[in-house]
Amino acid sequence: MDIEQRPLSANERIKESSRFLRGTIAESLSRIETGSLADDDTQLTKFHGFYQQDDRDLRAERGRQRLEKAFSYMVRMRVPAGIVSPQQWLAIEKIALERANRTIRLTTRETVQFHGVLKSNLTPLMQGLAAINLDTIAACGDVNRNVIATADPSRGGLHEVVATLARDISEHLLPRTRAWHEIWLGEQRVAGAPVEDEPILGRTYLPRKFKIGIAIPPQNDTDLFAQDLGFIAIVERGKIVGYNVTAGGGMGMTHGEPETYPRNADVIGYCTRDDAIAVAEAVVTVQRDYGDRSNRKHARLKYTIDTLGLEIFISLVNDRLKTKLAPARPFKFETTGDRLGWFNEKDGRSHFTLYIENGRIFDRAQRRMMTGLHRIAELNVGRFIMTANQNIIIADIPAASRQAVADLLAEHGLDDAQGGLRRNAIACVGLPTCGLSLAESERYLPDLITRLEAEADRYGLGQTDITIRMTGCPNGCARPYVSEIGLVGRTPGVYNLYIGGAHEGARLSKLYRRDVDGDGIVAALSPLFAAYAEQRKRNERFGDFVIRAGFIAETKTGLDFHENLSPDLRT
Amino acid sequence: MKTAPLLPKTAPFAEDQIAALNTVISAASVEQRAWLSGFLAGVQAANDPRAAATPAAPPAKRIPLTILFGTESGNSEGLANAARKVASKLGFAPKVQDMADFTPAQAAAVENLLIVAATWGEGDPPQRAQDFYEALLADNAPRFEKTRYAVLALGDRAYAQFCEIGKRIDERLAELGGARITDRIECDVDYDSAANGWIDQTLQRLSKEAGATDTSVIHVDFARGSESDANAPTRAHPFHAEITEHVRLSGSRSTSETYHIAVSLEGSGIAYEPGDALGVVPHNDPDLAEAVLAASGHAGDAALRTALIERFDITTLTAKQAEDFGRQTGTDVPPADWLHGRQVLDLLERAPGKLSTEQLTTLLRPLPPRYYSIASSRKAVGDEAHLLVAAVRYETHGRQRAGVASVDMTERSHLDGRLKVFLRTNQHFRLPADPDRPVIMIGPGTGIAPFRGFLQEREAIGANGRNWLVFGHRNYLHDFLYQLEVQDWIKSGLLTRLDVAFSRDQPEKRYVQHALWDARKDLYAWIKDGAGIYVCGDANHMAKDVHNALLHILADQGKQDEAAAKAELDAIRRDGRYLRDVY
What we know:
By secondary structure, chain A is α+β, with helices and mostly antiparallel strands. Helices cover 30% and strands 18% of the residues of chain A.
């Protein structure tokens, strides 16, 4: 391998010289003449949980106005398994209103993003989170990101187990540096304290981002095959005995660079419940030691595995384990979606899964999400669980409060039903704030779905669950390559259309139309809906149907994602 | 103290004579130099056969006259200087005094006193006149039994407390035993002819009472800068300046609209200094003029329409206008609180179509010019002046209202590409003569304008003094006026320090006074290093809040009580190191 001979990427130098992620962030914060950070610091602050962005809608006018770009920050919380108390929710809302753009954005990693945060508001925001025992450490950056777990509280004790594991893994893999506490909370460095080190992540941290998910079959709401590392709960007699381990999932690719590709994870074995953290550490350290630090487009674990070969990779992991991985156990996933609406427990408790379009919480005239959730949180009962589908579950509502919650949901327009496409839709943030976005996403998908649902209705598919996901760029934050319909931005108004991902998330999709606009998307999908309505077998999913009917070839692994295209799409 | 030599080496004197003259002249006060200049002119005139018909006045027997002004915008000062010219011609020995540098005790020792007093905002004295005013109203004020006096009050009828300060000074001087030369005159914003007429008559009367002989006196021109240039554009004869740049500085999502407007002064004879203001003669909104025409029953009168657009004030409303209108139309006079937030149009609509053309034009006040602090230095931009203009728009009583000049300049004037301008100098807002002296510039909103001029000037002359800018507005993202230039100033080292306060970016309102307080330690150190403090912007709130913040800082950092802090700030002001340009 020639990886060692190639020069390290610029980010490696930045990490190396950052004094454990401190860089010159503190000085950057003090430069009040600019809303931006020093260039190197913009890389380091990701490890502190936030990205520098600018409002791309305003770029053209700003130069004329003798203003710099409209810089602001996207700040992401770390909240393993996405569970917060009603009191924490109220504090999060207050932060969004006072320090951000007055919206709360739920993400596919079961957490909250604050958008439009000014540099001057970063410190108060961090301190506000610290006050409710939350933080933003490692929410972005070349580290283990927020750990997600099946969010469904109706899975009883199982949910508690996976949520606890998510928290434990997150803590175990957290950077050890006190940089975050020093910069944002003013913590003083203790004289004579032990020399800082990062025993697991290493002083240059990981080569690239690293994502871990946990799922309890048949629910694959956490999209395990899109995660770098996944744990599939194996349940015997109502208890989790251990986990099948998945590795090497990942969505990101670059248009026009076929050596980059989305990859669905491999199941690499089984571990007991007690060994899960050791397995996580072993996989992370193999990636730390073998990942590509020269080319960031080739640095995710999925490429490490394909470069090493799966068997070698597994043996490297086993070398680092006291108890080797056992053969995987049988499991069966059925869906990646959330079960929306009410669920009543036998003991009188109930849960309500609230659909949040694109995860964006704010007050619309008809759906007053922000106020409704505020009023429900004020009841101070149960818990709020953010899902990987960008919805929110009001969990563990005592019987005595169920009617009050139901009334508040109705009062704020939050108990309406959604169509089969909309309730299974995910969009990334996209324009105007995401610097990577090539096309609209969150601001556009709702309108497109209105048109597509009209088509689906024509063929009686209005209530059929079909996953549809849109991203503004090919990096795939909304996991478009494992959905039944995927739309990936190319340029403003233009998308690549992918179909044939598995409904339960285990199979990648295939490019079906290149460079289509809204009309083109509707024109391409409408006949597929017609054919599906007419020819589908009992319980056959749309993603499976389009392969059986020959509209596209099945994608078996990431390596053939770009292969077997219809002749007119070959380049 | 360094004094710049006045006579050039090329003067027609021997080198030692030049040195000797320089020694005397450079150390002379303004008055001494003026006297000398008048004296030499007299000598010259006496020896000039062409001037034989107007022999030099005998230097003795002139009546002393003190012309005391209290000014905020410069209008009172301008009138005081005009009065001095008239007084000189009438054989007085006039002396112009700023209330800022004068006490009632000194005033009480004066035999002949002419006062020009402005009222500011809601019945306040000009800031620099405040001490004089308060001392005059205090119980221990001196008696004025040996003083003859007259008061010229300036005000704006659009405010309820019209000419309040002049009125109270006039009444107070009478209480204290002063003898009125003539009744007080109260002038509105169109004060020119009335004020000059009154000055003339008052001085004539005083001249007779004081027994002066109406002898010809050599006219001494005290005027400075462009005032001395007879051809310089004036309010009555403004220069039609071409707009060379018209850029919106506030972002499209800003809650305000602020524009950078550059005009060419080429050929105008206007030679401004940083700190000066440009007077702009605006036009009214043609749509509003049409509405006034319609409401007064003169729709279609083209000549009247032009007059309403170009010559008359149709956007304010005074109690006097309401009374006159009620009398003329036989309608009820609306109560005073009805006037608040209303304009002439609202009044006319109470009885539409009832006024003749002449009644309408008599009812209306002349359209006053507006003044904008110049945001540039000629050393940096050449024959241009840059203005920073915030478009004023608001709604009252169900009508959209717009600032006359600001909206004219930002929306209409640039259509035909010209602005009517003239210079108003402001001697009270100048950079320190010493380029090494540090300056602290506090200018939120459009208050940053003169400081851009200051910084350009200091950069152009290579001044070494440290520069500290305190800026504020509503939103950092959309209202950081000249942000890229500020960044350049910091990068080049021209701007030593920047502090900002944006009021709407966080739950608590943050203003420049809070930024000052946060920086109090360094601020105090700068003041102790002799820094000049400059404040520009809103007079009603900001300037007062900043003033209080400065007092608190002097008390806190100087470990002294409030009275001592006030005394210190007064001393700084008297020293010419605390200057304001507020509006």
